[in-house]
Specification:
Keywords: Hydrolase. It holds the Pfam family Abhydrolase_6. With about 280 residues, the protein is of the alpha/beta class. It has a single domain, classed as Rossmann fold. It contains 9 helices and 10 strands. An 8-stranded mixed sheet has the order 1-2-4-3-5-6-9-10, with helices on both faces. The protein has a two-stranded antiparallel sheet with strand order 7-8. Helix 5 packs across helix 6. The longest helix has 14 residues. It is globular, with a radius of gyration of 18 Å.
Protein backbone atom coordinates (compact mmCIF):
# COMPACT_ATOMS: atom_id res chain seq x y z
CA UNK A 1 0.00 0.00 0.00
CA UNK A 2 1.54 3.30 -1.11
CA UNK A 3 0.78 6.43 0.84
CA UNK A 4 -0.45 9.63 -0.79
CA UNK A 5 1.79 12.66 -0.59
CA UNK A 6 0.03 15.82 0.57
CA UNK A 7 1.33 19.37 0.87
CA UNK A 8 0.17 22.35 2.89
CA UNK A 9 1.54 25.63 4.23
CA UNK A 10 2.86 26.39 7.67
CA UNK A 11 1.67 29.60 9.29
CA UNK A 12 4.65 31.47 7.79
CA UNK A 13 3.97 30.10 4.31
CA UNK A 14 6.75 27.49 4.19
CA UNK A 15 5.66 24.43 2.22
CA UNK A 16 5.34 21.31 4.32
CA UNK A 17 4.74 17.75 3.17
CA UNK A 18 3.29 14.61 4.69
CA UNK A 19 2.33 11.13 3.58
CA UNK A 20 -1.20 9.92 4.20
CA UNK A 21 -2.77 6.48 4.22
CA UNK A 22 -6.60 6.29 4.38
CA UNK A 23 -8.43 4.54 7.18
CA UNK A 24 -11.62 4.36 9.20
CA UNK A 25 -12.98 7.85 9.80
CA UNK A 26 -14.61 6.91 13.12
CA UNK A 27 -11.30 6.07 14.79
CA UNK A 28 -8.61 8.41 16.07
CA UNK A 29 -6.05 9.17 13.35
CA UNK A 30 -2.46 8.06 13.81
CA UNK A 31 0.05 10.92 13.57
CA UNK A 32 3.64 9.74 13.08
CA UNK A 33 6.51 12.11 13.87
CA UNK A 34 10.06 11.04 12.95
CA UNK A 35 13.34 11.85 14.63
CA UNK A 36 15.20 15.05 13.86
CA UNK A 37 17.41 13.33 11.27
CA UNK A 38 14.70 11.06 9.88
CA UNK A 39 11.68 11.49 7.58
CA UNK A 40 8.15 10.25 7.02
CA UNK A 41 9.57 7.29 5.10
CA UNK A 42 10.33 5.58 8.42
CA UNK A 43 6.63 4.97 9.02
CA UNK A 44 5.71 3.17 5.80
CA UNK A 45 5.79 -0.30 7.36
CA UNK A 46 3.70 0.77 10.36
CA UNK A 47 1.16 2.45 8.08
CA UNK A 48 0.88 -0.65 5.92
CA UNK A 49 0.33 -2.81 9.00
CA UNK A 50 -2.58 -0.57 9.97
CA UNK A 51 -4.16 -1.63 6.64
CA UNK A 52 -6.94 0.94 6.67
CA UNK A 53 -7.85 0.40 10.32
CA UNK A 54 -7.34 4.10 10.97
CA UNK A 55 -6.06 7.08 9.02
CA UNK A 56 -2.27 7.45 9.20
CA UNK A 57 -0.33 10.65 8.55
CA UNK A 58 3.48 10.80 8.69
CA UNK A 59 4.99 14.30 8.67
CA UNK A 60 8.19 15.67 7.17
CA UNK A 61 9.40 18.57 9.32
CA UNK A 62 10.61 21.75 7.64
CA UNK A 63 13.96 21.03 6.02
CA UNK A 64 13.30 17.28 5.94
CA UNK A 65 12.24 14.88 3.24
CA UNK A 66 9.74 16.42 0.84
CA UNK A 67 9.17 19.60 2.88
CA UNK A 68 10.78 22.85 1.76
CA UNK A 69 14.15 24.06 2.99
CA UNK A 70 14.15 27.33 4.91
CA UNK A 71 16.18 30.36 3.85
CA UNK A 72 17.13 31.05 7.47
CA UNK A 73 18.39 28.02 9.42
CA UNK A 74 16.93 29.49 12.60
CA UNK A 75 13.63 28.30 11.17
CA UNK A 76 14.74 24.82 12.25
CA UNK A 77 14.75 25.56 15.96
CA UNK A 78 12.51 23.27 18.03
CA UNK A 79 9.86 25.88 18.70
CA UNK A 80 9.01 26.59 15.02
CA UNK A 81 9.06 22.86 14.24
CA UNK A 82 6.59 22.18 17.04
CA UNK A 83 4.38 25.00 15.76
CA UNK A 84 4.53 23.33 12.34
CA UNK A 85 3.13 20.14 13.83
CA UNK A 86 0.26 22.10 15.34
CA UNK A 87 -0.30 23.79 11.96
CA UNK A 88 -0.32 20.37 10.31
CA UNK A 89 -2.87 19.04 12.78
CA UNK A 90 -5.15 21.98 12.01
CA UNK A 91 -4.67 21.93 8.24
CA UNK A 92 -5.12 18.16 7.93
CA UNK A 93 -8.00 17.89 10.43
CA UNK A 94 -6.07 15.68 12.82
CA UNK A 95 -8.02 15.76 16.06
CA UNK A 96 -7.51 13.64 19.21
CA UNK A 97 -4.67 11.82 17.51
CA UNK A 98 -2.77 8.76 18.54
CA UNK A 99 0.77 10.13 18.28
CA UNK A 100 3.79 7.93 17.60
CA UNK A 101 6.96 9.96 18.07
CA UNK A 102 10.54 8.87 17.55
CA UNK A 103 13.17 10.86 19.46
CA UNK A 104 12.40 14.54 18.63
CA UNK A 105 8.93 13.39 17.61
CA UNK A 106 8.42 12.11 21.15
CA UNK A 107 9.63 15.39 22.60
CA UNK A 108 7.10 17.11 20.38
CA UNK A 109 4.40 14.84 21.78
CA UNK A 110 5.32 15.99 25.29
CA UNK A 111 5.12 19.63 24.21
CA UNK A 112 1.74 19.17 22.53
CA UNK A 113 0.46 17.31 25.57
CA UNK A 114 1.19 20.46 27.59
CA UNK A 115 0.17 23.08 25.02
CA UNK A 116 -2.94 21.30 23.67
CA UNK A 117 -3.89 18.52 26.10
CA UNK A 118 -7.08 17.61 24.26
CA UNK A 119 -5.23 17.15 20.96
CA UNK A 120 -3.91 13.74 21.99
CA UNK A 121 -5.74 10.51 22.76
CA UNK A 122 -2.70 8.20 23.19
CA UNK A 123 1.07 8.40 22.76
CA UNK A 124 3.88 6.04 21.80
CA UNK A 125 7.37 7.32 22.64
CA UNK A 126 10.15 5.72 20.63
CA UNK A 127 13.42 5.79 22.60
CA UNK A 128 12.98 9.18 24.18
CA UNK A 129 12.18 10.47 27.62
CA UNK A 130 12.27 13.65 29.71
CA UNK A 131 15.97 13.20 30.53
CA UNK A 132 18.31 13.24 27.51
CA UNK A 133 21.86 12.04 27.99
CA UNK A 134 24.53 14.53 26.87
CA UNK A 135 26.73 12.08 24.96
CA UNK A 136 23.79 10.76 22.98
CA UNK A 137 22.60 14.27 22.18
CA UNK A 138 26.06 15.21 20.90
CA UNK A 139 26.17 12.12 18.67
CA UNK A 140 22.81 12.99 17.13
CA UNK A 141 23.90 16.60 16.54
CA UNK A 142 27.04 15.40 14.80
CA UNK A 143 25.04 13.13 12.51
CA UNK A 144 22.49 15.83 11.71
CA UNK A 145 25.18 18.27 10.65
CA UNK A 146 27.20 15.91 8.44
CA UNK A 147 26.84 15.40 4.68
CA UNK A 148 29.24 12.64 3.61
CA UNK A 149 28.28 13.05 -0.09
CA UNK A 150 28.67 9.36 -0.80
CA UNK A 151 29.29 8.10 -4.31
CA UNK A 152 26.70 5.32 -4.18
CA UNK A 153 23.96 3.81 -2.04
CA UNK A 154 26.39 1.05 -1.07
CA UNK A 155 28.94 3.63 0.06
CA UNK A 156 26.27 5.49 2.02
CA UNK A 157 25.18 2.21 3.63
CA UNK A 158 28.74 1.47 4.73
CA UNK A 159 29.18 5.01 6.07
CA UNK A 160 25.91 4.95 8.03
CA UNK A 161 26.33 1.42 9.34
CA UNK A 162 29.76 2.28 10.75
CA UNK A 163 28.49 5.34 12.63
CA UNK A 164 24.92 4.46 13.59
CA UNK A 165 24.08 2.95 16.98
CA UNK A 166 23.43 -0.82 16.86
CA UNK A 167 20.24 -2.05 15.21
CA UNK A 168 20.53 -5.85 15.45
CA UNK A 169 17.15 -6.37 13.76
CA UNK A 170 18.64 -5.16 10.46
CA UNK A 171 20.47 -7.59 8.18
CA UNK A 172 22.44 -6.46 5.12
CA UNK A 173 19.28 -5.87 3.07
CA UNK A 174 17.67 -4.12 6.02
CA UNK A 175 20.61 -1.72 6.39
CA UNK A 176 20.46 -0.95 2.69
CA UNK A 177 16.74 -0.17 2.91
CA UNK A 178 17.30 1.90 6.07
CA UNK A 179 20.02 3.87 4.27
CA UNK A 180 17.72 4.47 1.30
CA UNK A 181 15.31 6.10 3.76
CA UNK A 182 18.17 8.22 5.11
CA UNK A 183 19.93 9.37 1.91
CA UNK A 184 18.79 10.36 -1.57
CA UNK A 185 20.74 10.71 -4.79
CA UNK A 186 21.19 14.34 -5.77
CA UNK A 187 21.56 16.04 -9.15
CA UNK A 188 25.33 15.73 -8.69
CA UNK A 189 24.83 11.93 -8.57
CA UNK A 190 26.09 11.84 -5.00
CA UNK A 191 24.04 10.57 -2.06
CA UNK A 192 23.10 13.23 0.49
CA UNK A 193 21.02 13.20 3.71
CA UNK A 194 17.29 13.67 3.25
CA UNK A 195 17.44 16.73 5.51
CA UNK A 196 19.09 20.14 5.53
CA UNK A 197 22.35 19.66 7.45
CA UNK A 198 22.07 23.27 8.69
CA UNK A 199 19.54 21.86 11.18
CA UNK A 200 22.51 20.83 13.30
CA UNK A 201 23.49 24.46 13.76
CA UNK A 202 20.36 25.09 15.80
CA UNK A 203 21.23 22.51 18.43
CA UNK A 204 24.65 23.86 19.39
CA UNK A 205 26.10 27.14 20.61
CA UNK A 206 24.76 29.78 22.96
CA UNK A 207 21.59 30.37 20.96
CA UNK A 208 20.45 26.79 21.60
CA UNK A 209 20.20 27.49 25.31
CA UNK A 210 19.88 24.96 28.11
CA UNK A 211 17.33 22.16 27.62
CA UNK A 212 14.12 22.77 29.57
CA UNK A 213 12.97 20.53 32.42
CA UNK A 214 10.84 18.02 30.55
CA UNK A 215 9.58 16.00 33.50
CA UNK A 216 6.40 18.10 33.91
CA UNK A 217 5.80 17.68 30.16
CA UNK A 218 6.12 13.92 30.45
CA UNK A 219 3.91 13.81 33.53
CA UNK A 220 1.16 15.38 31.44
CA UNK A 221 1.13 12.27 29.24
CA UNK A 222 0.58 9.91 32.17
CA UNK A 223 -3.18 10.45 31.94
CA UNK A 224 -3.21 8.90 28.45
CA UNK A 225 -2.70 5.37 27.15
CA UNK A 226 1.09 5.42 26.89
CA UNK A 227 3.77 3.13 25.50
CA UNK A 228 7.56 3.45 25.54
CA UNK A 229 9.82 1.62 23.10
CA UNK A 230 13.34 1.54 24.54
CA UNK A 231 16.58 0.40 22.96
CA UNK A 232 18.60 -0.76 25.94
CA UNK A 233 21.85 0.41 24.29
CA UNK A 234 20.42 3.87 23.67
CA UNK A 235 22.79 6.73 24.39
CA UNK A 236 19.89 9.15 24.79
CA UNK A 237 17.68 7.21 27.19
CA UNK A 238 19.19 5.24 30.06
CA UNK A 239 17.80 2.67 32.49
CA UNK A 240 17.54 5.12 35.40
CA UNK A 241 15.39 7.47 33.34
CA UNK A 242 13.17 4.60 32.19
CA UNK A 243 12.71 3.53 35.81
CA UNK A 244 11.76 7.07 36.79
CA UNK A 245 9.33 7.25 33.87
CA UNK A 246 7.68 4.05 35.11
CA UNK A 247 7.23 5.61 38.55
CA UNK A 248 5.71 8.75 37.02
CA UNK A 249 3.43 6.81 34.67
CA UNK A 250 2.79 3.41 36.32
CA UNK A 251 0.41 2.29 33.57
CA UNK A 252 2.90 2.97 30.78
CA UNK A 253 3.70 -0.13 28.73
CA UNK A 254 7.41 -0.61 28.05
CA UNK A 255 8.97 -2.61 25.22
CA UNK A 256 12.68 -3.14 25.89
CA UNK A 257 15.04 -4.20 23.11
CA UNK A 258 18.36 -5.68 24.26
CA UNK A 259 21.38 -4.75 22.16
CA UNK A 260 19.49 -2.01 20.33
CA UNK A 261 20.61 1.62 20.18
CA UNK A 262 18.90 4.85 19.30
CA UNK A 263 16.41 4.53 17.81
CA UNK A 264 14.49 1.31 17.18
CA UNK A 265 12.92 1.07 13.73
CA UNK A 266 9.51 -0.04 15.12
CA UNK A 267 9.77 -3.02 12.78
CA UNK A 268 11.45 -5.26 15.36
CA UNK A 269 9.30 -8.37 16.05
CA UNK A 270 9.04 -7.56 19.77
CA UNK A 271 7.82 -4.05 18.93
CA UNK A 272 5.31 -5.21 16.32
CA UNK A 273 3.86 -7.82 18.69
CA UNK A 274 3.30 -5.17 21.37
CA UNK A 275 2.60 -2.01 19.36
CA UNK A 276 0.01 -3.38 16.95
CA UNK A 277 -2.32 -4.75 19.70
CA UNK A 278 -1.82 -1.53 21.67
CA UNK A 279 -3.03 0.48 18.67
CA UNK A 280 -5.81 -1.98 17.86
CA UNK A 281 -7.28 -1.57 21.35
CA UNK A 282 -7.55 2.21 21.00
CA UNK A 283 -10.78 3.77 19.70
Amino acid sequence: MTGRRIEFSASDGLRLAATEWPGAADRAPLLCLPGICRTALDYHALAVRQAGARRVVALDYAGHGESARAADPRRYRPEPLIRDVLDAMAALHLHRVVLVGTSFGGLTAMAIGTMRPTALSAVVLNDIGPQIETLGREAVINLIGTDPSCTSLDAATAWLRQRHPPLPALDDAGWRAFTARTFAEGEDRLWHPRWDVRIGQQAVGEEAGAPPDLWPFFAGLARLPLMLVWGQESRLLNADTVAAMRRTAPDMRVVSLPGTGHAPTLEEPAVVSALDPFLAALP
